[in-house]
Amino acid sequence: MKPLVSIGIPVTDRVDGLSLTIDSLLEQSHGKFEVLLVDDTDDEITSALCVDEAGRDTRVTYVKTPGHFGVLPSHSEALARSKGAYFMWLGVGDRLDRNFLEICTKKMEERADLSLAIGHPKPSKVEEDGDQSVINVSDDDPVRRVESFLESDIGLDLWYGLFRRPFVAAIPFRNAIGYEFAFLAEVAFAGKMETVEGAWSDRNIQISAETAAVDATKAEEVPHQQVDTLGVPAFQWGDPYLVLAAQLFCNIAFLSNNFASLPQIDRLRLAIRAYTQIADRWGISNEGQFISFAVRIYPEARITDRLHELRLYLSELLFSQTHSKSFFEPLSDAEEIVNGLCRLKIGRLPPTHMEREIVSKIKTRFDATKSENFKNRAILALALFL
Hints:
Layout lengths: L4 E7 L6 H9 L6 E7 L4 H11 L5 E5 L6 H10 L5 E4 L5 E2 L3 H11 L3 E8 L20 H10 L10 E3 H5 L9 H12 L1 E11 L8 H11 L1 H8 L9 H16 L8 H19 L7 H8 L5 H17 L1 H7 L4 H12 L9 H16 L3 H12 L3
Parallel strand pairs: 1-2, 1-4, 2-3, 6-8
Antiparallel strand pairs: 4-7, 5-8, 6-7
Helix pairs in contact: 5-7, 5-11, 7-10, 8-9, 10-11, 10-12, 11-15, 13-16, 13-17, 15-17, 16-17
């Protein structure tokens, strides 16, 4: 029996090309699918066109939001209403070759280790003679998969691949710039990503990771228009890559249950590497705003409490000879984590009572010991409070 595939199509600012998108779905060789057509406009003509498209086939369901949820919330609404074993998003004007769903679904059914099947984007006339980018994140180690994903030529074609719906539906939605990349990092941790031969798609708009920076520049000129279109809080446009980096760090370090299989120190190390990758690759305007941004992105998550817990945890590890040898051998492993947290200005957090106690113990032993190893560990621990 063929599995049900759910396809979400958010309509947020235009409807040109929607009929072509629906045509390509109704012609699919894999006919067991549902389409969630999410209308996030407040334009009566656009809504009427969406209703007409939904009326073409019983597999197409029209969903009306109150209007101007925003781009990401509209994507989330489509996923939340889906029921299939597999799920994918399509943009208005996107088209799939006739066998796209059949080929990608077959690949996912055959390969339990895959979390995402990606089709080949059809090249434009300008690109036809050039090499086509193929993204395969195929490491067996889930940590290395996340690192490989963040090191790759990230484009939103991955966002429009075929996912295992039960897994991605459980990833908490966050209305934040760069959420899609934080989302894909979790998908990479869960399984391999593979570009599937023979599956072709015609994307109406090619979007790269640099889009956020371009949009942020435009936002300085027309901030209300940008905020209204995307539906994100206005402060995020001040430093879009910090918003992305903060999501990656917080999700990996302590928020997402998907990384719970990792020991705490490994989660923290991966979180630091993910943050550093974004900061070094695309640049962050003001890293000193990390805590402020993280608190506003996750107002319910007690971010400062969690950062205090991380700082205390590391301080106690570095204080303990036994634990330090187990977790930080060589000591450069600790330096990577401490240096990363110092970039986040974790030292600006006033120490708690328990933190003051461990700092006092470290200072007392530092003055009394002749061990160079402990002195080096103590310097690292105290750096977290500067």
